[in-house]
Amino acid sequence: MNDQNDIARAIVAAHAARFGETGDHPASFASDDAVYRGAKTACAALGFIEVDAECLARAWQAQTQRTGAFDAQAWPEHPADFGMRSFPPSARADAFPPCPEKLGLYAVLPDAAWVGRMARAGVPTVQLRFKSGDADAVKREVHAAVEAVRGTDALLFINDHWQAAIEARAYGLHLGQEDLDALDPQELQAIRASGTRLGVSTHGYAEMVRADAVSPSYLAMGAVYPTTLKQMATAPQGVARLAAYARLMRGYPQVGIGGVDAARLPDVLATGVGSVAVVRALVAEADPEAAAARLMKAMAAA
To answer: Which residues, at least 6 apart from 63, have a Cβ–Cβ distance to it below 8 Å?
Structure first.
């Protein structure tokens, strides 16, 4: 699949249909509406979900307006064309505290015991993804995870449980789109004021734009490959789209996530993301420490 070439051809065809042009590149007849219609049609045909097709088509339209001409080879990669504020986001007044540009191997783990185990194995970034409706159990697990990384160099992010993360003084917090949307402005400001780093999951253009609105510390982008761990609203993004996302969001530390294993790791890193998140590639292994060592060695080589 070559999204760029397919969409470019559809935009050119839309111009030709509108203006009766028979040439291959009717750029001199550029129409904002034709660019939008051609891109939207092609995005939908290529399998982009509706909100992403709309977002990308509007970006093609905005790029044409900004540059004054349609360029079939210029895939939109300018933040302003997506309605985003100036980059780098870390320079904004409302930016969350920064984290390293390259978070390295990022292990997503089910409990504090696993967090401690992988931190001691030298994994640089770990996330506690503890699922429970028991608030007391959540608080205990979050505090245990913070204690588990003490004395190691691992950076600990807590998935979802933002109040417990702040109380336990965790390094960072990771939120999905639904969790981010559920926060009211006062809650979001409380997280920002605490000094906690914030990572946000994204699954395409529209969610990246939504996440950028709060200027988080990093972005997770996926699912790159099929995964059985979560029910995804979008199809696997693949490395071609991940590379386009990485170019657009180049002002952020970026984490590729979803179905990544040792064999796929080099292709994911080649997109330009500075970190790769893994789950089953560690917790499903007979020797997780050895698996972590292999993955970290592969990342260093890449």
So the answer is: 74, 76, 78, 81
Low-confidence ranges of the chain (pLDDT < 70): 1-4, 8, 11-12, 14-31, 228-234
Helix (H, G, I), strand (E, B) or coil at 264: coil
pTM here is 0.91
Helical (H) or strand (E) element with 174: strand 172-175
CA distance 194 to 165: 10
Give the H/E segment covering residue 166.
Answer: helix 162-168
User: Which residues pair with residue 219 across a beta bridge?
Assistant: 200, 254
The CATH architecture of the domain made up of 95-301 is Alpha-Beta Barrel (3.20)
Start and end residues for every CATH 3.20.20.70 domain found in the chain:
95-301
Per-residue buried b or exposed e for 28-53, using 16+ beta carbons within 10 Å of the residue's own CB: eebbeebbbbbbbbbbbebebbebbb
> Would you call 219 helix, strand, or coil by DSSP?
strand
Render pLDDT for 54-95 as a digit per residue (tens, 0 to 9): 999 999 999 999 998 877 778 899 999 999 999 999 999 999
